[in-house]
Design a protein that fits this description.
Length: about 110
């Protein structure tokens, strides 16, 4: 895992037949993890989980924001010491492999 800078932007996709405003990280839909009922602000994706879902880890606050309220984009310190970007307090991830944009019992596309 290599910390880096990210470009975050507002985007729009069709979810369940409705246009939905979502958060894009470097042009890809961002996701939050909600699979085990933990606090949404708690970082829970490590090891095997992080092999499929890239945590948005950063070196610091240097971000490029487009169409977003900067007060809603912050970071949290992970147990491994990295800073992970959050949106409304929820840690952000993006899939390492292309997959359809969707929300399910484990992963939710980050809505804005």
């Amino acid at each position: 895992m290599t910390p880096r800078s990210f470009a975050l932007a507002a985007g729009q996709v069709d979810l369940s037949g409705r246009k939905t405003a979502i958060l894009l990280v470097d042009g890809q839909p961002a996701y939050t993890y909600r699979g085990d009922g933990h606090s949404p602000a708690e970082v829970r994706c490590f090891d095997a989980c992080a092999a499929d879902w890239q945590p948005a880890v950063t070196k610091g606050p240097a971000l490029e924001l487009s169409g977003l309220d900067s007060a809603r984009v912050t970071s949290t310190v992970r147990a491994d010491g990295y800073l992970q970007l959050t949106y409304d307090g929820r840690p952000l991830y993006f899939p390492k492999r292309p997959r359809p944009v969707r929300s399910d019992d484990e992963w939710a596309v980050a809505r804005i």
